[in-house]
Structure formats: structure tokens, C-alpha cells
Specification:
The protein is an alpha+beta fold. It is built from 14 helices and 21 strands.
């Protein structure tokens, strides 16, 4: 029954696929031992390979050493490779000014990822259960959380973390261990009210179950499932809006405010979070007050404002957009111009990029096989010398819809004002051949009588 329940969770959440290589985090306690035993039973059925990771935190002396020995023997009996590491977690926490729980979690996940990379695994299985889910949600409520926090522990993450026994309660896990004579280790510190989570587990939840609702944990899980559904809908809307109004350039992430300011605050705040995550990789250290500051500066009439966020993030409000960046914004006054010899590479120092070109006969040219970012033109239509420069006053390009000023083109493409002087333009004498990475002039397009083609790109 328990095995079938876990298999159902794995299938419904698409956690494991045939051929997966999985690092299983095993402390030696009931949860992780149950997880390992079930995955081992699945390994032949699903053709998956398992590895075990165990961390001795050097907190419980002999008891911790016995935990490691137990895990080694269990892995030996199951013929599973086992990796054991011992780290002075208390010292690490003291040196880095971290709480014991936070520091231990950081070191555990660091170890899991190291082993994952070492053995070429693609997933890490963690033994969180239904009780852990309820405890986590309660802790987040006490700290003050939003909808994202009330989603609770995720079944799987993009980084390969999976939690196959998240739908099992602790009693069923302990029963499974007894039935299969696994004799897991018991961490006595989990039975002491010395940490916030332990107090919630040992005191608060039993009190609520006794005095208010004996099915309290299941009630919390139902709430989490409902809120996760709502959250998924909002995040789907955020995905669509981010694709429409956000652009990532080398100098940062741009959010264009014309559309941004028409959206609900729930979507806008998540767009800001998405932009910050795209810029620095995560949102650690970013609080609601910081998001509210950015929301305030997005309003009309807040032009040329700047705020500083944690992690060295600068936020600028400019005409038409908000810029999230790690750089202090400076107005662009650069001007550059380079002679281009077809087929030769030229380094553009102002951009830190190289203009690369290649001459190809028409019979060897296949536009379907070209990589993204590659442009091409009829070399025979070049009338003067080819140069690469940034924009000049009065520049125009001939497109299928007629002649267009480069300034108007940049506005239509939503290229930020301070980036426009950096965009390289390929010219034939004074005629604009191409706006690199964006548009080609129809005057230089390839035709049946074309003999030689110049392919070019910026790298």
C-alpha cells in the first residue's frame, strides 16, 4: 500500500524517468531509509541507478558515527554506492554567522550537488514527508509569508531535487520500516524541543490536534494543494507577461512600464522577482519592502529615480522602462567606426565583441542551416567600402515596408535609450546595410542572380 502510494506520487508528479541516475540523501532516520528502500525496489522496474549521500554533522558525537556505520551497512546490503562526508557543522555556522539548522541545510545540499556532479546523476531524492510539509507551512506563517511560501515544500524542482514520499505521513513511514525490518536510527535531538521546528512538531501540532482538529495535518495539506493551484495560475500569467514586457541585455533586465502598469499588483510583484532572479540567480535577501519600492517607482511621474537593493542591485526608472542592473548607469557617449574587409574578423573594442564574416558561393548556401544571430547579404550589391559603426544623425534603412529612420526602428524594437549608441550598424558608404542582430536592408537581399554571399555575426 505504501509502495503503491509512493509510485502514484512519482507517476503523477513525473518525478522519475527510465534511466535516471539519482543521489538519495540518507541520514539513517526512518524517512530517508524508507525512501531508499522504496527507490531500491523501483530501480529494476524503472531502470534507474541509485547513489547514497550521507553527511555526518559532527554534532552528536558517537551517535552520529553510528548513524554513518548504519548507512554504510544498509547500502552494502542493497549493493548501492555510498558517499559519506564528515563536516564540523557547528564551526561552519559560527564562522559564517548562521543558525545551526540553516548552516546544516546549506552544507547538506552543497554535498548533494557535489556528488550529483561527480557521479553524473541528474536528480537528488530527499525524504520529506507530509508532516514535514505541515510543519514548514506553519513556520512560514509565523514568519509572515505570501502565496509562494504557502505552496509549501515542492514535489520537484528545476535543479533536480525530488521528494517522492511527500504524500506519506510519519506514522506510515515508521510502520513501513518495522514491516521491512529496516531498524532505522533515531536522532534523539528530534525528540527535544530545542529548535523551532521541533517545538512545532512536538508541542504545537499535537496541541492543535487534541484541542481543535485531530486531522489538522491533512487540513493543512488540502490548503497547500488549493493554494498551489492558485499560485500555478498566477505564475503562468507571469510567464506570459514576462515574455511580453521583459528584455534581458548585457547590462541588466528591462521591464517596459506601459504594459507593466496595466497589470494587477500580484503579477507585477512577481515580474519584479522574476527579473531579479534573472539578474542574480535568486532572490535571497530581497524582502517585500524592496519589491514595494520598485512598484512605487514604476508609477507615472517617477522618472529618473534610482533605488539600491541588497545584493548590489540598482533599479532605475527611465522613460518607458524600469532597469534592474548590477552596474551604475552612465549615459552613453561612445562613437566608433571600423573598416570591414569581407571574410576577415574585426574586434570592436567598444563592445567587447568580434565582427565575424565569411564569403560563401550561392551554391553552398543554405539559409535553413544557419545558426541564430547570423545575417547575410548579396556581396555583389556592395557599391562602396563596408564599415561597421554606431548610429549617426539621419540614418535610415530600407525595409519591405519602406524607408525607416534608425531612431524610429530602435523605438519600435524597444531598445533602451542608453543602449542605442552601442548597436552596431553595417554601412555601404553612407547606405545602411544592416542593423546587426535586428534588421537587414532589402537593397542587399539575396536573389537568383546572386553569386557570392557575405554571412556575418557578432560574437
Amino acid at each position: 500500500m505504501i509502495f503503491d502510494s509512493v509510485l502514484k506520487t512519482i507517476t503523477e508528479k513525473s518525478m522519475i524517468e527510465t534511466g535516471d541516475q539519482i543521489v538519495v540523501a540518507v541520514s539513517g532516520g526512518p524517512d530517508s531509509v524508507c525512501l531508499l528502500h522504496i527507490l531500491h525496489k523501483l530501480s529494476n522496474q524503472m531502470d534507474i541507478r541509485l547513489f547514497v549521500a550521507h553527511l555526518n554533522h559532527q554534532i552528536r558525537g558517537l551517535e552520529a558515527h553510528l548513524d554513518s556505520l548504519y548507512v554504510m551497512k544498509l547500502c552494502d546490503s542493497l549493493d548501492i554506492p555510498c558517499f559519506i562526508k564528515s563536516i564540523d557543522v557547528p564551526k561552519y555556522c559560527e564562522d559564517n554567522k548562521l543558525g545551526l539548522e540553516d548552516g546544516a541545510r546549506i552544507l547538506r545540499y552543497k554535498m548533494f550537488n557535489e556528488i550529483k556532479a561527480r557521479v553524473g546523476a541528474n536528480k537528488v531524492a530527499i525524504g520529506h514527508n507530509k508532516n514535514d510539509q505541515a510543519e514548514t507551512v506553519l513556520m512560514r506563517i509565523m514568519r509572515g509569508t505570501g502565496l509562494q511560501g504557502l505552496r509549501g515544500i515542492e514535489y520537484k524542482r528545476k535543479d533536480g531535487i525530488i521528494r517522492p514520499i511527500l504524500d506519506l505521513n510519519r506514522k506510515d513511514i515508521e510502520k513501513y520500516c518495522v514491516e521491512h525490518e529496516l531498524y532505522p536510527r533515531i536522532d534523539r535531538t528530534n525528540l527535544e524541543s530545542i529548535y523551532s521546528r521541533n517545538k512545532i512538531r512536538l508541542e504545537l501540532i499535537p496541541y492543535i490536534q487534541k484541542e481543535f482538529n485531530d486531522n489538522f495535518i491533512d487540513s493543512v495539506i488540502r490548503m497547500v494543494q488549493n493554494l498551489r493551484s492558485d499560485s500555478d495560475y498566477i505564475l503562468n500569467e507571469v510567464d506570459k507577461e514576462y515574455a511580453e514586457l521583459a528584455r534581458a541585455y548585457e547590462d541588466g533586465v528591462y521591464l517596459f512600464v506601459e504594459r507593466f502598469n496595466t497589470l494587477h499588483s500580484a503579477v507585477k510583484s512577481r515580474l519584479i522577482i522574476r527579473g531579479i532572479r534573472a539578474l542574480v540567480g535568486d532572490v535571497n535577501g530581497i524582502e517585500k519592502k524592496h519589491i514595494d519600492e520598485v512598484l512605487e517607482m514604476s508609477k507615472d511621474g517617477k522618472l529618473n529615480k534610482k533605488i539600491n537593493l541588497p545584493r548590489g542591485i540598482f533599479v532605475y526608472r527611465k522613460q518607458g522602462y524600469i532597469l534592474l542592473t548590477k552596474s551604475i548607469l552612465e549615459e552613453s557617449n561612445i562613437e566608433y567606426e571600423y573598416a570591414i574587409e569581407p571574410g576577415k574578423d574585426v574586434f570592436i573594442s567598444e563592445l567587447g565583441k568580434t565582427f565575424k564574416s565569411e564569403i560563401v558561393p550561392l551554391e553552398n548556401f543554405n539559409s535553413d542551416e544557419l545558426k541564430k544571430g547570423l545575417q547575410f547579404l548579396d556581396l555583389g550589391k556592395i557599391r562602396s567600402s563596408i564599415r561597421l559603426r554606431n548610429r549617426r544623425q539621419g540614418d535610415k534603412i530600407r525595409l519591405s515596408g519602406g524607408s525607416k529612420k534608425i531612431k524610429e526602428l530602435f523605438i519600435g524594437l524597444k531598445i533602451p535609450r542608453e543602449n542605442r549608441d552601442k548597436v552596431p550598424i553595417l554601412v555601404d558608404g553612407e547606405s545602411v546595410v544592416a542593423v546587426c542582430d535586428y534588421r537587414m536592408s532589402i537593397d542587399y537581399k539575396i536573389e537568383e542572380k546572386t553569386e557570392k554571399i557575405l554571412m556575418f555575426t557578432l560574437e
